[in-house]
Amino acid sequence: MQNELLRELESRGFINQSSNMDGLNDALNAGHIAGYWGTDPTGDSLHVGHLASLMLMRWFQKYGHKPILLVGGATGRIGDPSGRDKGRPMLTDAQIEHNCAGLRKSISKFIHFGDAENDAIMVDNNDWMKNYGHMEFLREYGTDFTVPRMLSMESVRRRLENGMTFLEFNYMTFQAVDFLTLYKKYNCILQFCGADQWGNSIMGVELIRKKLGKEAFVLSTSLITDSRGEKIGKSAGNAVWVNEEKTSPYEYYQYFRNTPDDLVEKFLKIFTEIPLDEIARLSKLQGAELNTAKKILAFAATEIAHGHDAAVAAESASNALFAGGAGMENAPTFELEMNDAMGIVDFLVAIKLFPSKSEARRMIEQGGIQIDGNKITDWKSVVLPVDEIMVQKGKKTFLRVVRKA
Q1: pLDDT tens digits along 340-354
Q2: Could you tell me how far CA 45 lies from the centroid of its own chain?
Q3: How many Å apart are CA 399 and CA 333, to the nearest integer?
Q4: What's the rounded Cα separation, in Å, for the pair 312 and 302?
Q5: Burial (Cβ within 10 Å: 0-12, 13-18, ≥19) of residue 166
Q6: Strand ranges for 195-332 from DSSP E
Q7: What are the φ and ψ backbone dihedral angles of 2, each rounded to 5 degrees?
Q8: What single-letter DSSP state applies at residue 87?
Q9: Phi then psi for 321, rounded to 5 degrees?
Q10: CA-to-CA distance for 247 and 240, rounded, in angstroms?
Q11: Strand residue runs (E) in 270-343
């Protein structure tokens, strides 16, 4: 009989592939288990691209299982080659410590930590990796990995073409040792990962089998892409952050409110806990009525990440702004030092609505910019230094500009 959790995950589109679905099904049916998901501290917040794995872990906990969240204090010092054309920059100890604190804040929005049996715990792989010297690590694990097997991984083959370093080449061995360590310490038999981490995760299953003669499992999720089909991530420059210091609840709400029509059903299933029968009803809406589904999606996703009050405020601000009314206090805000009049093009670039003057000028000429509700059509216009300005780009982007004291 298919396990209830797996039915939920499959119905919601979380499952990309599994190392042994039948074995995992039996393990879940036999009782509650521990499973982990890991991320390196390359930033101080998670983003929407992480949320498929994080929401999967949320469902894992809701069904009574124990989530383990691993922050890669050790692997973050190396850099993961998966899905990349170049290596990651080295981080200092201070940067890693700062980022780990930010990641815990992100994760705590979705997963409950505590002392109960299925409450989540957070671990740092530097706690065990720092105890290995180079010779000790090689003696303990060097014969458990073969070069041909490592070279067979797509992530390795891709980076070899661009000069993969020996440092990066070791990444998958570290991740495999993480899984083995968690298996021995917490009886953690399952690793969750994104599709791009499949090769690294499978190495852990193989190491556990070699060292302990035990079976462990990997369950991967599909990567979340934007409307252009590009992976959502910090390095891609299209990240929507979980922590409110980087992306306000209003901006977070607007991201989901602006979901492309063909992704509404998928996003409702992955980013919310709305029952599947209600999602099926909402997904049948057509035309202008589909906006109702997008508003429900935006509210539910924002409520999970930022709480009920923030979701209500974001919804209220969105409704007021689109109706041309009040609600400016809840719009995203940019502080700008502005003592003299500025050309509209320079102004739009300064508040980071556009990366270049040519793009700003083009949008003005197309009639896509409004200042305090007035459409701007002359790119030679100026903006006067006042305390507060509401800028609208296109139909869906609003920015409240406040003069810096």
Answers
A1: 889 999 999 999 888
A2: 9
A3: 6
A4: 9
A5: exposed
A6: 217-221
A7: -65, 135
A8: P
A9: -65, -45
A10: 6
A11: 333-336, 342-343
Closest CA to 120 of 58, 194, 181: 58
Q: Tell me the three state secondary structure of residue 234.
A: coil
Nearest of 17, 55, 117, 118 to residue 274 by alpha carbon? 55
Question: What is the rounded distance in angstroms from the CA atom of residue 256 to the CA atom of residue 269?
Answer: 13
pLDDT tens digits, 213-250: 999 999 999 887 766 666 665 544 457 899 998 888 98
How many other β-carbons are positioned within 10 Å of the β-carbon of residue 291? 13
Burial 124-145 (b: 16+ CB within 10 A, else e): bbbebbeebeeeebeeebeebb
For the chain, the C-alpha Rg in angstroms (whole number) is 24
Q: How far is the C-alpha of 12 from the C-alpha of 9, rounded, in Å? A: 5
- Do 111 and 67 meet the contact criterion of CB atoms below 8 Å apart? yes
Residue pair 44/98 in contact (Cβ under 8 Å)? The answer is yes
Contact between residue 330 and residue 398 where contact means Cβ atoms under 8 Å apart: no
Look-up of token digits 């793009």: 359
E-state strands within 133-195: 188-194
What integer pLDDT is reported at residue 328 of this predicted model? 57
Burial class (CB in 10 A: 0-12, 13-18, 19+), 51: buried
Q: Counting Cβ atoms within 10 Å, is residue 116 exposed (0-12), middle (13-18) or buried (19+)?
A: exposed
Tell me if 304 sits within 8 A of 110, measured CB to CB.
yes
Tally Cβ neighbours within 10 Å of residue 342. 18
Burial class of residue 378 (count of CB atoms within 10 Å of its CB; 0-12, 13-18, 19+): exposed
* pLDDT at position 325 over 60: no
**What is the per-residue pLDDT across 29-44, written as a single tens digit (0 to 9) for each?**
999 999 999 998 988 9
Compute the distance between CA of residue 11 and CA of residue 271 in angstroms, rounded to an integer: 13
pLDDT tens for residues 148-183? Answer: 888 887 767 776 777 777 777 888 899 999 999 999
Residue 113 gets which letter from DSSP? Answer: B
Rounded to whole angstroms, the Cα distance separating 379 from 364 reads 6
Contact call for residues 101 and 44 (beta carbons, < 8 A): yes
Give the global pTM: 0.80
Query: Coil, strand or helix: which one is 343?
Result: strand
